[in-house]
């Protein structure tokens, strides 16, 4: 390992700076020069005992100049898939030819991560509604401000990794404000089949960063509380594609996902909800193609003497499905997004090409 600085940061040189090297990445406790990588803990709050609450950060400044990209995960403390993605990019990839800088924050919500829950447990706040934060505001907003000011705003673009809420699962998809051309470019570069187009709620990292001039998308993948290798691999491919699009990597190319659909903000209509309480037998995985009238799931009483069938109201892809198979009236069962005729043909072609691949994850 490299040298350890006064504040405990591990700093190592992994490449010689190129002639056209970029600027150092500067954060409150130090700087990371071209060709250097820093592993650091940054204090964002304190516990009741007065101990620091530190978040782990890895900064990799490539030997040559290029954009600065942040990768963040676990803003919701129990959403783990993105942690694997960010750590793998930061620590398993060879960055000896990187043009630009990667700012990797695998666990944003450290208190939530320690408790394995979605929200900040001490302050009971949604960290992903607290951005850009405030130095004098509530606990959550103070944490958000330290993350945002020091590691988000200095970047040129960013990827924020999430999973579905506990009890549900999502196919890999991006959420992005496609009316913003810079954000749309990033969303397309990440190369998912499905992009949900919305500005995003106020206080989310992607919306506030984008409004501050740092185009950012949310990547949704799988379920909470676990690592799902196929999804992690596909998200890593998305990162490769983004690095190619923005010139950080000259050795890779921008991917085309095979087919793509951009769904405009109207998602309430496409959540199929239970009209009765009961036990759910879901008949499809996330990412499955279902045709209008297909049975999506059944909801039955404990004796199985009464079974309600839920059918697809239109032809589409199941972006999200229930994992915890119990519902009361009004509970979401699945998130079905409609496919236009051209996209449907492309999806069917892809399935014909590889019939063993029933779902698109
Ligand atoms: Zn989340």
TrEMBL record:
Keywords: Hydrolase, Metal-binding, Zinc
Protein name: Putative deacylase
Alphabetized InterPro entries for the sequence: AstE_AspA_cat (IPR055438), N-alpha-Ac-DABA-like (IPR043795), N-alpha-Ac-DABA_deacetylase (IPR053138)
Pfam families: AstE_AspA_cat (PF24827)
Keyword Metal-binding: yes
GO MF terms, alphabetically ordered: hydrolase activity, acting on carbon-nitrogen (but not peptide) bonds, in linear amides; hydrolase activity, acting on ester bonds; metal ion binding
PANTHER family: BLL3975 PROTEIN
Necessary cofactors: Zn(2+)
Keyword Protein transport attributed: no
Superkingdom per UniProt: Archaea
Domain spans labelled Succinylglutamate desuccinylase/Aspartoacylase catalytic: 65-245
Gene3D superfamilies: Zn peptidases
Coiled-coil region(s): none
């Amino acid at each position: 390992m490299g040298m350890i600085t006064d504040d405990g940061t591990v700093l190592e040189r992994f490449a010689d700076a190129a002639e056209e090297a970029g600027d150092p990445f500067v954060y409150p406790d130090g700087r990371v020069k071209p060709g250097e990588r820093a592993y650091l803990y940054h204090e964002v709050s304190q516990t009741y005992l007065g101990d620091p609450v530190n978040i782990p950060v890895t900064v990799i400044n490539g030997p040559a100049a290029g954009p600065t990209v942040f990768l963040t995960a676990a803003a919701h403390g129990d959403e783990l898939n993105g942690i694997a993605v960010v750590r793998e990019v930061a620590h398993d990839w060879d960055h000896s030819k990187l043009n630009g800088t990667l700012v990797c924050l695998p666990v944003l919500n450290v208190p939530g991560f320690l408790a394995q829950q979605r929200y900040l447990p001490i302050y009971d706040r949604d960290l992903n509604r607290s951005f850009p934060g405030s130095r004098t505001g509530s606990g959550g907003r103070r944490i958000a401000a330290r993350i945002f000011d020091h590691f988000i705003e200095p970047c040129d673009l960013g990827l924020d990794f999430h999973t579905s809420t506990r009890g549900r699962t999502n196919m890999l998809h991006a959420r992005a404000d496609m009316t913003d051309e810079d954000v749309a470019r990033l969303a397309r570069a990440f190369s998912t089949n499905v992009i949900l187009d919305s500005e995003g709620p106020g206080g989310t990292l992607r919306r506030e960063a984008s409004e501050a001039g740092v185009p950012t998308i949310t990547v949704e993948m799988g379920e909470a509380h676990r690592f799902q290798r196929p999804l992690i691999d596909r998200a890593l491919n998305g990162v490769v594609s983004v690095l190619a699009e923005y010139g950080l990597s000259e050795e890779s190319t921008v991917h085309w996902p095979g087919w793509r659909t951009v769904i405009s903000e109207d998602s309430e209509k496409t959540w199929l909800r239970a009209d009765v309480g009961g036990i759910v037998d879901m008949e499809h995985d996330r990412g499955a193609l279902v045709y209008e009238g297909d049975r999506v799931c059944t909801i039955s009483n404990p004796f199985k003497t009464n079974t309600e069938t839920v059918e697809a109201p239109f032809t589409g892809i199941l972006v999200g499905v229930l994992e915890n198979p119990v519902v009361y009236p009004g509970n979401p069962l699945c998130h079905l997004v409609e496919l236009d005729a051209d996209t449907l043909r492309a999806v069917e072609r892809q399935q014909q090409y590889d019939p063993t691949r029933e779902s698109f994850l």
